[in-house]
Amino acid sequence: MPKYEASAFAPINIALAKYWGKRDARLNLPTNGSISITLDKFGSTTRVIFDETLEADVLVLNGEEVRTPETLRKISIVLDELRSIASTRFARVPCARWRARVLSQNNFPTAAGLASSASGIAALALAASHALGLKLTPERLSELARRGSGSACRSLFDGFVEWKRGELANGSDSVAASLHPASHWDLRALIVVVDAEPKSRSSTGGMTSARNSSPFFQSWIESAQATLGPIRDAIAARNFHALSRAAEENCLRMHACAISASPSLLYWKPATVALIHEARKMRAEGVEVFFTIDAGPNVVIVATAAHAAAARARLEVFLKNSGAALLETSPGRGAYVL
Ligand code: PMV
Fold first, then answer.
1. Ligand 1: residues whose CB is within 6 Å?
2. Share of residues in the chain with pLDDT > 90 (%)
3. Under CATH, to which class is 187-329 assigned?
4. Overall pTM surpassing 0.85 (yes/no)
5. What angle do helix axes 69-89 and 138-148 make, rounded to 10 degrees?
6. Domain 5-184's class?
7. Ligand 1 test: best mutation among 78, 294, 299, most atoms within 8 Å of CB?
8. Distances from the Cα of 172 to the Cαs of 9, 147, 190, 211, in angstroms?
9. Residues β-bridged to residue 163
10. Hey, whose CA ends up nearest to atom 9 of ligand 1?
11. What is the Cα–Cα distance from 323 to 290, expressed in whole angstroms?
């Protein structure tokens, strides 16, 4: 009798070229491609158990049952898709109709703009596909994870990752793949957790609002597509100077698009702005760093390995008595089955 359960770990990722905008909200198809770094150590460990006694999918996150409809909907989209693949492949496997209990644990502050849905959904897609005995290709898994949360499709892969916008209406070409393994470039990511509270507005809500009301939305998409090449090239050539410039520009333009929505989406706190200035100051003094910020107040300072200790020392002084936490990590491997 096969066991209908499995566990997986998936890491968080930080986008250097941001995904911001959906061309198809149901399939989570992006208006633009994106490039990220999969980060070591921090992520979600998720166990999925298909259970015939359940009437609905259940999510227990960090020991507490989640009842938020938006979050439950995300996990059921991924699980429904997998149940449907399983029922066509093995018509006699009863668990294809069973609901699942999903037990997930994050080892970082949840919903703090640290891509918690990315690692959680990537771990879910991998664990659930294994629990059902489905041997899916990395592309198919990426497509599935994308349905639950766009940026999750990148957390499956190692190191430096690109998610292609894709052209097809069914989304089968809108998947991520690794550009380079983690060993390609020894960078460090210093994550400054300015505020560990869940963000006030979800990424999906933010993207919809920006698309519907920001007068700069179209310009953002054009600029986001145009920066993919320079960011990809800077990573390939390990050109930190070029990457700093292109990644900061991309981040600020994404936030300019969010800020210019109506009502305005201002994810930043005063400490976020102070850290932008601090990163610029460090760089002017010769410390190799740049900043990037996802849809929340937290700032990720990326440094070269040679300058990471200096950057960290500066940040520790800067953050003293502020209550902000500092997490250090580096490029890492993608999701894996436990
Ligand atoms: O995948 P979502 O729906 O959580 O959206 C992520 C959006 C950003 O974090 C702001 C950018 C990105 O590419 O990760």
1. 15, 18-20, 34, 115, 117-118, 149-151, 203-204, 294-295
2. 84
3. alpha beta
4. yes
5. 150
6. alpha beta
7. 294
8. 24, 11, 34, 23
9. 34, 176
10. 294
11. 22
